[in-house]
Amino acid sequence: MKLGIVGLPNVGKSTLFNAITKAGAECANYPFCTIDPNIGVVNVPDERLDKLAEMYKPKKVTPATIEFVDIAGLVKGASKGEGLGNKFLSHIREVDAIVHVVRCFEDPNIVHVDGSIGPVRDIETINLELIFADLEVLERRMDKVKKQAKSGEKKYQEELEFLESIKQHLESNQPVRTMKIDEEWEKYAEQLFLLTAKPMLYCANISEDDIKNPDANPYVRELKAYAAKEKAEVITICARIEEEIAQLDDSEKKAFLSELGIGESGLDRLIKASYKLLGLISFLTAGETEVRAWTIKKGTKAPQAAGKIHSDFERGFIRAEVVAYEDLIKAGSYTAAKEMGLVRSEGKDYVMQDGDVTLFRFNV
Ligand code: GDP
Predict the structure, then answer these.
(1) CA of 243: how far to CAs of 17, 135, 266, in Å?
(2) Which terminal residue of the chain has fewer beta carbons within 10 Å of its beta carbon, N or C?
(3) Using an 8 Å Cβ cutoff, are 245 and 265 in contact?
C-alpha cells in the first residue's frame, strides 16, 4: 500500500519528501527504496509499541511502515500531455491514496506558478487535471460499451447508464470519491481505476511562524472549509521544519518539539492520517524476542491476519488469543490479563481490531 504525494510545483513536495526519506525506516529492509529514489518508507508512529517494549523488554521493536511516492510534475494541462503529463498520471494510477500538498506559506523569494498564494485555486487546478484524466478513461470505455449495447443486451445498457452517471458527476467538477455508488456497482467502479476515486487528504504547507497556531493563517482556514465539503482531512505541517526534525534522534526531537510548543511533529501526524486514509490498522504481537506492529486492512479476519506473519499460520489456524492493548496495559502483564479473564479466545470468523495484542495458535 502506498501513497502518492502530489501538488503544484513549488508548494513543498520535495521538501516534504526529503523529510520522509530522512525520517525513513531502516532501508536495508526495503531494497526497493534504495533502487527507486522516488519511494520513501517510514515507520508509523505508535506509542503502544513503546509501552509494550517497557513491559516485555524485547530484543527488537518493529513498527509498521508505509510508503510514500514522490510524484512531481503535475501542472496545468497535464491531462493534455503538458509537463510530464500522462507519465505523471500513470504514476498516480499506481498508488492507493493521495496526499495533496497545498502551499499556504508566503515567501516572496519562492515564486508561485500562478503568481499568488491561493490554496483553493491550486487544489482545483490539480483536481481538474485528475477529473479530465478520468473523463478520458470513461469516454473510451463508453465508446466500447456503446458498440456492445447495439446487440440490445440489457446489461450493456445498464453499464452505459452507470458510466453516464459517473461522467455527469465528474462534469459537475466532483471527484468520484464523493459519489454515492450502489453496492452492486462498487466492484465494477473499482476496476475502472479512476484517479479521483482514490482517497485523498490535503497537506497544508505552512510557514515556520504559523506552527503554533495554524488556524490563524487565513489560507489554512480557506483550505479547511473547502476540504470539509468533501469530508477530506487536512494536516497542517511546515515542510521545512519537518526536514530539520527528521534528522534528529528521539530525545533531540522531543526537546525541539517542546521548544516549538507542539506535542507531535507534523510528519508524525501526516503518517498516522495516511495510514488511516488507506484503511489500515495494526494488530500487535509481543514477546521477549520482538514487539511488533502488523499492518492489516480494516475488516481482516483472524486467519488472514495470522497469514501476515507466516502463511503456515493461516493454513493451520486454530484460534487467536487476543487481548486489547488497553486491557493489557491496565492489567500490567499478560499473566495478570489472563487471570482477569481479559484474554479472549477467538475463532476464524473474528474480525481483528486495531491494537489487538495477539498470539496465534496453529497446526503445522
Ligand atoms: P516542490 O516543487 O513542490 O517539490 O517544492 P519544493 O519542496 O522544491 O519547495 C519549493 C521551495 O519552497 C523551496 O525553496 C523550499 O525550500 C521552499 N519551502 C518548502 N517548504 C517550505 C516552508 O514550509 N516554508 C518556507 N518558507 N519555504 C518552504
Answers:
(1) 9, 37, 10
(2) C
(3) yes
In-domain check, residue 291: no
Q: Which of 5, 6, 8, 10 to mutate to test the pocket of ligand 1 (most atoms within 8 A of CB)?
A: 10
Q: Do the beta carbons of residue 271 and residue 66 sit within 8 Å? A: yes
Residues 220-263 pLDDT 10s: 999 999 999 999 999 999 999 999 999 999 899 999 999 998 88
Cα dihedral across residues 108, 113, 116, 121: positive or negative: negative
Q: Measure 238 CA to ligand 1 centroid, in angstroms.
A: 9
Pairing of strands 2-6, 65-70: parallel
In a domain, 52, yes or no: no
d(CA 219, CA 178): 23
Residues 92 and 223 occupy one common structural domain: yes
Q: Evaluate whether 108 touches 224 at the Cβ level (below 8 Å).
A: no
Do residues 103 and 170 both lie within one domain?
no
The count of domains in the chain is 3
The pTM is what? Answer: 0.92
d(CA 271, CA 248): 17
Q: Are 253 and 45 in contact (CB under 8 A)?
A: no
Q: Which atom of ligand 1 is nearest to the CA of 15?
A: 7
Count, residues in the chain: 364
Name the residue range of residue 303's domain: 299-362
Which atom of ligand 1 is nearest to 72's Cα? Answer: 4
The answer to whether the CB of 223 falls within 8 A of the CB of 104 is yes
* DSSP-derived secondary structure for 171-233: HTT--GGGS---HHHHHHHHTT--GGGS-EEEEEE--GGGSS-GGGSHHHHHHHHHHHHTT--
